Amino acid sequence: MKKRLFIAVLIPAVIQKKIQETIFPIVVPFKEELKIVARENLHFTVRFLGGWPEEKIPELVETLKPLSREKVFEIQLEKAGFFKNRVLWLGIQQGKIELQEKNQMIIQCLHVKPEESKGHVTLARNKTLSTKQLKELAEKINGLSFQETFLVQEIVLLESQLKPDGPVYKKVFEWKLVS
After folding, report:
1. What is the pLDDT of residues 131-176, one digit of tens each?
2. Which alpha helices (DSSP H) does 65-126 contain, by range?
């Protein structure tokens, strides 16, 4: 059986709560037009792996062991934006290079097709807002001057189980970073 897997950086609960208290009040009035990401699901995707055979997960974990030799690093959340009128996101000011380096390491270890890591937290997926409305929403979020920094101490392998109410993420493995 295949598991839908991705490699991610989890956002600490205290920062998730700040996003919920500060940014979500601007987004929630558009809950009919947007599919808002559940607070506990806010994360950075380093690399989406897709369907992975369950019996090969131990081999995957071992192959990515070099991640555990990487150093801890800081991520600073900052400005909001959107991709192709589909995804409303919160970007990062600090930590982009480190996330790209982790993505490159994964590409090399797994011999997979290179993909750029965009370094963002998905806040919501757009269902019906126009590009203009989405841009205005991002600008309103940016008017908050939201800025939070946290230390990344682990990279995780997550399984995404798609449910009618939205995805459920289950931690499969974590690679602790070096202090």
Report:
1. 999 999 999 999 998 999 999 999 999 999 998 888 899 999 999 9
2. 96-110
